[in-house]
Each structure stands twice: as C-alpha cells, then as structure tokens.
Amino acid sequence: MSGNIHPTAVIDPGAQIDGSARIGPYSVVGPGVTIGAGTEIGPHCVIDGVTTIGQDNRFYRFCSIGGMPQDKKYAGEPTRLVIGDRNTVREFTTFNTGTTQDGGETTLGSDNWIMAYVHIAHDCHIGNNTILANSVQLGGHVHVGDWAIVGGLTGVHQFSKIGAHSMTGGNSSLMQDMPPFVLGAGNPCRPVGVNVEGLRRRGFSVSVISSLREAYKIVFRRGLPLDEARAELRARQQSHPDAAEALQTLLDFFDASTRGIIRP
User: Fold this and answer.
1) Considering the entire predicted model, what is its pTM?
2) Interior CA angle at 144 toward 142 and 148, to 5°?
3) Catalytic residue list
C-alpha cells in the first residue's frame, strides 16, 4: 500500500490506484476502480462499481461514487462511471453507473464544480467546466453541456438536456430541455433571458452576444412555431457570419431535443 493511503482505508487488491493518489481515513475502494495521479479521496468515501477517475480530482468526505443505478431494470450488468480530471466534488454526493438501456456509461468531464448533496443518476453525461450547486438532482439520462450552471435545489427530469453556457436559477424544476446560452428559472422552469454575463466572462464578443439576444427574441418572444424560428436563425447565420457558430449550436440543440424546449 502507498504511504498516501490511510491505514484505516479498505482497498480491494483489484483496485488500480496511482501512487500519487491519496485515500483518506475509513474510505472504501472496490475492485473495479481506477484512480489517477494526484486525485484525493477524502475520509468516509465509498468508490465502487466499474469506475474510472482521472487526475487531480478532489472528493470531499462522505461521497458515494460508482454505486449501482437506481433503476429497477438494472440486473447487475457491468456498466461504468467515467470521471475526467480536476473536478471538485463536495460532501454527500452520489454518482451512479450507467444502464444497458442506454450506453452503459455515466460520464463527468473535467474541471467541474459539483457541490454538496448533488445526485448524478445513471447514464447522465456532464460536460466540462460546469457548476452543479448544492442539492441539484439529475434524473437518469440527463445531458449537461459545457459551462452550464445549475442552481441549488434544482430538479431535472430524466432524459432532459441542458445546453452549453446556460444558467438555471435555484430551486427550479426543469421538465424540458434548456437551450444553450439561455437563463431560466422557476417551477416549471421558464426562459427569462440570455446568460449575458457568463458569455462576457468567457470571451464572447459584443456582436455575438447581440446576435444571441436577437435569436432569443426570435425563439421566445415572437410566438413563432419552433420550425419558423429555426428558419429565421438559419437566415441570420447568413447575415451575421461572426455569430454563425453560436447560432449553429442553438440549431443543433433544437434538432437533438426529444422533450421539447422550455418556452414562456
């Protein structure tokens, strides 16, 4: 055992743990677990299932990572949880492995900030640089795009999608898909504007932000059917080439939506 593993920790001989990783007191690591360089597992954590954790992550005390899906259809199949690098995961979080009804894998990317009591259910896919605030609860098969922020105590219905650079207000109930770049809040969650401050902080130009604000008006303020709004967004791509990529992100999200998007 490495000197970085506390003597009270219970480590299965089948676990693969980098010599620079640290395991705190009374933590338990199962046989299917791989932990990368520089990752720190705090005290009283349980890491089990077929779980791969990358480098330089920090898990605070009382995390339950890699548990079996809370899905009655699950019958013990060898599904997985894959976690990237440099994530901060706070107390009492629960991340489940996937199910064979989906791709068999739950994923968390890199550079995410996951606060206390967050639940990431089976087959969820979380991108990079996201923030999930305290007690966010993600149902199964939820997708969260890069740089999204989900406010505390928000519940997200299974199979919902949260777009990149969006922000959801605290105590929201998200029953449909949250488009990229949008601010939303409420129960049920409704769009309330564009995440202008977040886009500024991430280096989006004034002209691109202006185009996204106009796109928001087209989709959410004019009462157009979504097909007509999409046609106008495609036309705007031609007239505003500097914003074409951001507008394409919106169009791709609409194409992939299966639950419908939130509307006023």
Assistant:
1) 0.97
2) 150
3) 122-123, 140
